[in-house]
Each structure stands twice: as C-alpha cells, then as structure tokens.
Amino acid sequence: MPQSDLFGLEMLWKLESANLADKADAMMLFVHWFLVRNGFRNVGVGDDKTLNNAVDQSELLPEGWNGNNKSYALRYIMNNELYILHGTLSNDTMIVNLLQAQSLQVSNAAFNLDKTITSFNDSNLTNVVVSIDDQITRLQTELIKPLCDGGSKSSSTQTLISSSPSPAQVNVVPAGGPRRIQVLRPSGLLLPFGGGGVGRGDLNPLGGVVGGGGGGGMLMDPMNMGPGRVDPFLPGARIDPMGPFPPRVQRPNPNPDHLPPPGYDDMFM
After folding, report:
1. d(CA 223, CA 221)
2. In what residue span(s) does the PI31 proteasome regulator N-terminal domain sit (predicted)?
3. Residues 16 and 61 sit within 8 Å (Cβ to Cβ)
4. Which fold has domain 9-149?
5. Total-model pTM
6. Are 223 and 233 in contact (CB under 8 A)?
7. Which of 43, 174, 177, 237 has its CA 20 to 30 A from that of 263?
8. How do strand 81-90 and strand 153-154 relate by DSSP bridges?
9. For the chain, domain boundaries
10. Cβ proximity of 51 and 13 under 8 Å
11. What residues contact 246, with CB distance under 8 A and at least 6 apart?
12. Is 62 exposed, middle or buried (0-12, 13-18, 19+ CB in 10 A)?
C-alpha cells in the first residue's frame, strides 16, 4: 500500500500516545485507524448490538476505549450498519474480531504483538508497526474483505434442514377440470406392525370380494363371502342383495323367501 494511505495515522498516534499503556493498546489503535481509513466511524465502546442513529459518529477513539487492555470492545457504523470490533489478548497474540451486528457475520485476524509492534512509545511511526504495508494487507484481506466483499464467515451455527416427505401429499387437480383432492401415501412411510395396511380390511364389510380379495370384512359380514366359501349367502338368511354382484346362485329348497305352509307352526299337526 502506498505511503500516502497512512494519512491520519500519525495524527491519531500523537493524540493517543499519552494514553497507550502497552503493545496491545498500540495494536488496537492501529486497527481503529485502518477501519476509519476504510469508511467506518466509531459510535462508542461496548458490544451492544442495537443502533441509535442519533449517536455521534467520530474518527477518534472514544473515551475509555482501553480501560481493559486484555479485552477491547468498540462499536462502529458504516452504511447505516453496526459493527463491533473485539480485541482479545491471549499470551502474546492479539485476536481481532469484527462482527456485523445484523447478520451476525464475523471476520477475524490474529497478530503476534512482539512481531507486529516494536514499541508503544516510539515517536517515529515507521518504527512502531513492523512491515506496515504487510499488516495493512492482512487487515484488508482477513478483517474487511470477508464482510464487505460477500465472502463472509458466519458466527452463527448453520443448520441444514433436510426436506423429508410429509405424512400425506395433496394433489389438487387444476381449475378447468373437476376439483378433487387425492391423498397419496409417500413410498417411504412405514405403517405400524410391518405395513400392509393392517386393519384396513376390517373397515370394508365387503372386503373379501369388493376389497380385492385381501380378506377381512366384518366378522359376520352380510354375505359371508370370505375366502373358501362356495355359497355366497348365509344358510336361512333372508338377504336379497342388490348388485353389482356375481349371478345369483340357486338356493336349495325350501327357499327361505317362500311363505311357510299352512299350520307350519302348529305343533299338533
């Protein structure tokens, strides 16, 4: 990056030099300058994810920004979107995270302080940040580009929702034809007790013949037309079913439909 892109860093360094306590402070000041240089404006400290448009936006660091030099939290705004900058010191490494509050997307970069910051009280800025062009390139590619160029990483857990067949699929005939609803059972749906439509035949009193010969029907169905029956009618039953059924079988005499002979129920005849 050309040297002219360091515009504003020297002024910021001089304004905050008296407040710097260690290399961690110097590193966060450098990251803050880089964000401001790329259009971000500071709106305070903390990690509150709510945005108040009435808050003042500034290129300067807010008061109390380095109150805890082990953990930093600064709020920024760009294009009416809120960002939160976190800096966490772990041993000699500064881990920097930039969170987009609305989408919960986050980018991160890690810097070894001893290899990145030579001193926090040197007046010569070129001696403070080691290979400053390389560090700016890292901030651009690892911190800014993932959020602002569409290649962001998400801090929220991504849940893959697999589409599974619903218990019933409804197929509606389009308008113009007869309106009907057909309920289809998915091929992968298992029925209880091993499948096969257990109990379905018991719902059809004519399950033995009309139901496709699968057996079933009522235990005492009106025509007793279960498997193995030759006579499709109950002996002595006064049933004259109405079609469509197979041709009537000639009943043996006496025909139960005939009237009994005179005196049939007289025990003395």
Report:
1. 6
2. 17-153
3. yes
4. Protein Transport Mog1p; Chain A (3.40.1000)
5. 0.56
6. yes
7. 237
8. unpaired
9. 9-149
10. no
11. 232
12. middle
Query: What's the pLDDT score for residue 84?
Result: 97
State CA 226 to chain mean position distance. Answer: 52
Q: What is the DSSP letter of 245?
A: S
Q: Give the sign of the dihedral formed by CA 129, CA 132, CA 138, CA 140.
A: positive
Of 28, 23, 48, 25, residue with least CA distance to 97: 28
| pLDDT tens digits, 24-74 | 999 999 999 999 999 999 999 999 999 888 889 999 999 999 999 889 999
- Nearest residue to 97 (alpha-carbon basis) of 172, 169, 157, 152: 152
Omega prior to 254 cis, within 30 of 0 = yes
Separation between Cα atoms, residue 107 and residue 85, nearest integer Å: 10
Model pLDDT, residue 151: 42
